[in-house]
Amino acid sequence: MIAVCAGSFDPVTDGHVDVITRAAELFERVIALVAVNPAKVGRFAVPQRVAMLRERLSGLDGVVVDSWDGLLVDYCRQAGECVLVRGLRTGADVADELKLAMMNSAVGGVETVFLPTTVGLGHHSSTVLTEVAAHRAVEQP
Asked: What are the sequence ranges of the domains in the chain?
């Protein structure tokens, strides 16, 4: 079975890599999918995100990187028999991810597997990393 780990990966974090690495231990093939979300303004262009993700995942067997601009369930239909793998950092993530999982199941018959974050990586988020980088860039001469 194929596992699809989808996200904006804008930018890719250690938490993302952790979830994808752990998924690769559970599934024979993993697709790390840079998904375009029209509700989010990307900091990096999709090709840049794909390149960053490929670089970070280069040593993992059975893992490929792809991108998609459409419904995730449509991508899964094209990929074949697959499940979505989603990482959970906090209780707030559970509520949001559960709604998405139920919708993906209802609309496309795609199931979701949740992996809790590895201890020590729960504070990692693309938003926080980008804010820290932006402030450091402003502060340094």
From this structure: 2-139
